[in-house]
Amino acid sequence: MGLKIIKPTFAMGSKLITTPTVTRFFFQTTEDVGEGEVLKIDASDFLNDTGESAQALPELQMNNSYFNVYINGMLQMKDNFTYTAGESGSGNLSINVPEESQLSSGTPIILEVINYEPTLE
Question: What is the pTM of this model?
Answer without folding.
Answer: 0.83
